Every structure is written in C-alpha cells, then in structure tokens.
C-alpha cells in the first residue's frame, strides 16, 4: 500500500506527486527450498512533489516483517508391537506420521524423541528404516514426535507404544522324546 496524506494514497493522484520505493529483503528463517515468504523487508519510500520543484523529495523507511509464527501440525497414533521370539524386549520401528503439515511451507520435518518414563531409550535413525529404538521391554512407553518448520516452530505429540509378549511358548525337550502339549480347557489335573 502507498503512504497517505489525510487518508488519500500518494499514488500520483494528489497534486502531481510521484511515489516510489525500493526494497531490501532479508530472510528471517531458513533459506532452504520451500521456505520462502519469511522475510524482513526494509522499504525505502521516496515522495516527489512536482508542485514544489525546488524542495527535496521526502524519504522515509518502513520495516515490514513477514514471519511464520504458527507451528506445524502433526498426527500420530499409538501402536502395539510384540517382543522378539527369543527375548523379553524388542526393537520398535516408528511409523511416519499420519499427518504432517504446515500452513506456510512445504518444508516440514520431524524427529522422534525418547520416552517420557523413567526408562531412557536411545532413539536412532536409519535412512532406510526410519526412527527406531532397541531393547524396549514389555510395557507401555510414551515417545514424542516433534514436527519443525522452516522458522523452527515446533509441535510435539506423544504416542503410546505398547510392547506385549505375543509370542507363544516353545517346548524344548531332549532328543527322541515325544511330548504332546495340548490345552486343558477344564483346568483339571490329569493322572
């Protein structure tokens, strides 16, 4: 918008005035692709009054700041996984978020951070497997998905991961001995 005098814009309509401006744009967030639009603009205005040709032009500076202050949105859901067949813990592989979106940029990232419980799990990242945690025992554990946009706005959402022992038992016997394991529906003692 143009500067005004008594509410009328100085855009060449008022008594032979000419208004121009030049901008210096300074990025205020990341300059990565997809992060445009976040900048501080130093706008130098110059107003020429042709009705007073001997007077110097009027100059002033306007500072415009356009920055994303809204954090991205993220949605994840809890899930259940089973322990490894030969142990009482498992490696948890964290799925990608169901929803990951920002209102100003397409450059939104996320990380998964450790449990909110007393147990501390080392969260690792592998480009082919994503985020994962090793040796997580049976129980419910809370982990956090943290979404970041170009201006380092962050949103965190907790997810409950249940580690259950869903592996059936395996009978181990001596060689050449046949053992039959059948369910006993009546919970009776057989002779």
Number of helix segments? Answer: 0
N-C termini distance: 96 Å
Percent of sequence in beta strands: over 45%
Structural class: mainly beta
Number of strands: 14
How would you summarize the topology of this molecule?
Elements: E1 4-5, E2 8-9, E3 17-27, E4 39-49, E5 58-66, E6 73-75, E7 79-82, E8 89-93, E9 99-101, E10 109-113, E11 123-126, E12 130-137, E13 139-148, E14 154-164
Parallel strand pairs: 7-14
Antiparallel strand pairs: 1-2, 3-4, 4-5, 6-9, 8-12, 10-13, 11-12, 13-14
Describe this structure in words.
By secondary structure, this protein is an all-beta fold. 0% of the residues lie in helices and 46% in strands. It contains no helices and 14 strands. The strands form 5 sheets. Strands 7-14-13-10 form a 4-stranded mixed beta sheet, with no helix packed on it. The protein has a 3-stranded antiparallel beta sheet with strand order 3-4-5, with no helix packed on it. The chain is rod-shaped. The N and C termini lie far apart (96 Å). The model has no long low-confidence stretch (mean pLDDT 83).
Task: Name the features.
mainly beta, 0% helix, 3-stranded antiparallel sheet, single chain, 191 residues
In short:
With 191 residues, the protein is mainly β. It is built from no helices and 14 strands. The model has no long low-confidence stretch (mean pLDDT 83).
């Amino acid at each position: 918008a143009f500067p005004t005098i008594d509410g009328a814009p100085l855009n060449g309509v008022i008594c032979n005035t000419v208004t121009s401006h030049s901008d210096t744009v300074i990025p205020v967030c990341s300059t990565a692709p997809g992060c445009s639009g976040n900048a501080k603009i130093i706008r130098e205005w110059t107003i020429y009054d042709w009705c007073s040709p001997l007077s110097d032009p009027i100059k002033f500076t306007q500072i415009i700041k356009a920055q994303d202050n809204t954090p991205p949105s993220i949605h994840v859901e809890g899930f259940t996984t089973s322990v490894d067949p030969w142990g009482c813990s498992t490696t948890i592989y964290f799925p990608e978020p169901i929803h990951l979106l920002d209102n100003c940029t397409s450059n939104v990232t996320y990380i998964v951070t450790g449990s909110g419980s007393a147990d501390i799990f080392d969260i690792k990242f592998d480009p082919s497997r994503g985020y994962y945690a090793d040796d997580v025992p049976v129980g419910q554990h809370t982990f956090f998905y943290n979404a970041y946009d170009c201006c380092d706005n962050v949103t965190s959402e907790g997810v409950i991961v249940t580690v259950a022992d869903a592996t059936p038992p395996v009978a181990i016997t001596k060689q050449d001995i046949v053992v039959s394991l059948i369910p006993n529906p009546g919970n009776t003692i057989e002779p």
